[in-house]
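Example 3.2
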Amino acid sequence: MNVLEQQLTTVVLHIPSLRCGGCLKRVTEALRALPGLEILTAALPTRSVTLRYARQQLELERIVEAVRACGHVPGELREAGQVVGEQSANGLGD
């Protein structure tokens, strides 16, 4: 793994209010506009977006703000850590 890959964080963001393809498109377009972020998958059936971002360039709060600006409230966020397994991040609700 090169140095750049080590600095990237992959997260799955659940957005319960996603109801249609238009909603999903608005959210993904807003996320794509953020620096240092790449969308890996976006799935309406699971109402989730999997993304990879560089923590050095982008804070998690900016991701949350971008989703909120589209009229959606992010729900659960799962982060794939350096160790085996996943961790839940708190504090994304109102």
